[in-house]
Design brief:
712 residues, 27 strands, alpha+beta, five-stranded antiparallel beta sheet
Length: 712
């Protein structure tokens, strides 16, 4: 269809209309008779001249305009533009659309029923009919009364406005969702209370905002609501706020899936975080030791009962470790009870730091402590935990100007191997502790039935470890260290792994202490150092980059000058610059070796090797070591990085540690970076180097080669 401009269109309409009207109208109509379908259409249909005069109208249109016949209507209607549209400008808009497009679709206007002058709303469709020369002859179109439809839509909109006015300011969040949790409607309170924008919330799944541990049960509960088998009791769950906080919400659901007006499950949520936290604080006070801040006997007995009931169902094991400080009375008598209380508090902190998240540490009274392990994996694991605790307590702590260490005797019993009830579990652990105290103190004893097995297990480990050293069953893995601003590889940390013939990969925490006890640590350390330096030297040449290598060294390896001499020979053999080697030590090096450590570290620094203090910030006296001992690098402990950026305490600690390192002109390496938020925080506060799972887990040399070195 050809297109003409508006002025030409109007002129053509008028001239053509006049010509058409001057002709015999019956002749035109006879030439263009409408079909029977035209007269029987359920909606109005018409033909009008270009000037706006009605030429034909079907029965529906006649009725719509209040007339009884087509002839009566045609005789009465003179000009549609002025007689039909409530707003006369709508006719101009109508004609403009026709001029532009040649047709009009769904053109909604308010009009008069021509005869009665009653106002109604109609939807029009029309097009221009052209002659053989392409000139417009007349209009044809349809007219549908949509008044009821618009009124219905208006009622719906009004209802929706009323509904939203009731929910948008409410403190109770309302959600409409399907049985799988897909949200169809979310009230403003939901968005306001959780801090997420509407575009992100509506259409998303409810469980994406819920704590993963709670979502498992609540998914099942929503299914029960859909089936009508739920209890109807209000439940409490945790939701993630946009700012990272966890909020506790109480909810109740109503199944309206069969309601045509709703067609969804209706959930109402209210925020009960404050009341829940207040209740938890009261419970905490009732079950917490006031001196140390850890659990008291009541909390321990409650936890033992729950753990044993769970173990009966799962077939698992529960262990209890009973600890009693050796010669604590001497401390109180020598330094006073206030000093003794500070030592007890220090012991509690160390015990909390040494245990897993699901274990319970309690003070039973006086100098007695206990640790509940509700999901014990093995007797060997229990022995390892107890030995680690005793070693931790023996580490020196400075209190009121005095360096103090605490030895303890430990005993343990296991449900169901050694006991069948909470009282028996505690009693047998106490007996095992007494056995340890009467057999030299500062040691651990398992309840009698397991004592022989424990000794055999330790002997097996020693034999296997000796065989491992002889057969070189060890492998060096590496974890990349990166420039945090560019994510460029700048170095690696060497980590030893024991390739056990039957157990597979064994981590160093499981055998290093035994290796030290058995005098095997020098051989293992020499192997790791040789492999790590040789490998790093090759990679540096391959990448044309001065890659660094960090090597962990134990206190025993630093006794005397032997270690420094071996390291110097290794560096010379592989043409590795000493200043690209970081020797990582822990505070234990200073505690265990004193002058030996200082002599060895000074010798290493004379070679050009850098000294890195690992797990920095954990030990209370670590700051003093920065003044007393030669340290070039500090590694911020992962325990502080893990809380970033959400924990205010961890933010303050890390900022302070970084500032302190700057004042001492020390390099800083952040350990345990696992999330983008941690990286952003560290970058913002001037930390330049780091490592962690966010970048890479420790991996064998072959994987480092393919994933990192080949990409240099």
């Amino acid at each position: 269809m050809s297109t003409i401009n508006r002025t030409a269109f109007d002129e053509t309409l008028v001239s053509t209309g006049e010509r058409l009207e001057e002709r015999s109208r019956p002749a035109v109509i006879s030439l263009e008779n409408f079909s029977t379908l035209f007269d029987r259409l359920p909606i109005g249909a018409y033909r009008s001249s270009i000037s706006g005069r009605q030429l034909r109208a079907n029965a529906a249109l006649v009725n719509l305009n209040g007339y009884s016949s087509e002839a009566q209507m045609l005789a009465s209607v003179n000009d549609i533009s002025t007689e039909w549209y409530v707003d006369s400008h709508r006719r101009d808009e109508f004609k403009s659309l026709l001029a532009r497009d040649g047709h009009v679709v769904a053109f909604v206007s308010e009009i008069y029923r021509h005869k009665t002058r009653e106002r109604i709303w109609v939807s029009e469709n029309a097009h221009v009919v052209h002659d053989e020369l392409g000139q417009p002859l007349y209009f044809e179109g349809t007219v549908e009364d949509v008044t009821h439809r618009l009124n219905a839509n208006h009622l719906i909109e009004s209802s929706e406005r009323r509904f939203r006015s009731l929910t948008e300011k409410a403190q109770v969040a309302t959600v409409l969702c399907d049985p799988l949790g897909k949200m169809q409607f979310v009230s403003a309170a939901f968005e306001r209370l959780l801090g997420f924008p509407a575009a992100l919330v509506e259409g998303a799944n409810l469980f994406d905002f819920m704590h993963a541990a709670d979502a498992i049960e609540e998914r099942e509960e929503l299914k029960r609501v859909a089936l009508g088998t739920n209890s109807g009791v209000e439940s409490i769950m945790r939701f993630h706020h946009a700012d990272g906080r966890v909020r506790r919400w109480a909810s109740i659901a109503n199944n309206c899936l069969d309601d045509e007006a709703v067609g969804a499950i209706v959930l109402h949520f209210r925020d009960v975080t404050d009341s829940q936290l207040a209740e938890e604080r009261l419970r905490h006070l009732a079950t917490t030791d006031s001196l140390t801040g850890i659990a008291n006997r009541a909390r321990l007995e409650e936890a033992m009962a729950s753990a044993i009931e769970a173990a009966k169902i799962s077939g698992g094991k529960v262990a209890l470790v009973f600890l009693d400080l050796d010669h604590f009375k001497v401390v109180n008598d020598s330094y006073g009870h206030a000093f003794g209380d500070k030592l007890l508090h220090t012991i509690a902190v160390k015990l909390k730091q040494s245990t897993g998240w699901n274990n319970v540490v309690a003070r039973l009274g006086g100098d007695e402590f206990a640790m509940l392990i509700p999901q014990l994996t093995s007797t060997d694991a229990l022995a390892s935990i107890c030995q680690n605790i005793l070693q931790l307590l023996a580490q020196t702590t400075r209190i009121d100007g005095f360096d103090v260490s605490a030895n303890a005797s430990a005993g343990a019993s296991i449900f169901p191997d050694d006991a069948s009830s909470p009282a028996e579990l505690l009693q047998h652990a106490d007996l095992a502790m007494f056995s340890a105290k009467t057999n030299g103190r500062n040691t651990f004893r398992h309840f009698a039935p397991a004592l022989a097995h424990d000794a055999k297990a330790r002997g097996t480990l020693v034999n296997e470890l000796r065989a491992a050293v002889a057969q070189q069953q060890f492998e060096v893995w590496y974890q990349p260290q990166l420039d945090l601003s560019t994510h460029r590889l700048i170095g690696l940390e060497a980590l030893v792994r024991w390739q056990h013939p039957t157990r597979g990969i064994v981590l160093p925490d499981e055998f290093i202490a035994t290796a030290e006890d058995q005098g095997l640590i020098d051989e293992i350390g020499t192997y790791v150092t040789e492999q790590a330096i040789a490998q790093t030297a090759r990679w540096s040449k391959q990448c044309q980059l001065p890659l660094r290598i960090a090597i962990n060294v134990s206190a025993q390896e630093l006794r005397g000058k032997a270690y420094a001499e071996r390291l110097q020979n290794t560096l010379r053999h592989h043409d590795m610059p000493p200043d690209r080697v970081d020797i990582e030590i822990t505070e234990r090096v200073f505690v265990d070796t004193h002058t030996y450590a200082l002599e060895a570290l000074n010798h290493l620094r004379m070679l050009g090797v850098k000294i890195a203090l690992d797990d920095w910030g954990v030990a209370y006296s670590a700051i003093s070591y920065l003044r007393k001992f030669p340290v070039d690098i500090v590694k911020v402990d992962r325990s502080f990085i893990g809380g970033l950026p959400d924990s205010a305490n961890d933010r303050s600690i890390v900022r302070a540690l970084l500032a302190l390192a700057r004042d001492f002109k020390l390099r800083v390496v952040a350990e345990g970076i696992e999330r983008p938020g941690q990286l952003v925080f560290l970058q913002a506060h001037g930390c330049r180097e780091g490592q962690g799972y966010f970048f890479s887990k420790p991996m064998p040399a072959a994987e480092i080669e393919s994933r990192w070195i080949s990409a240099c």
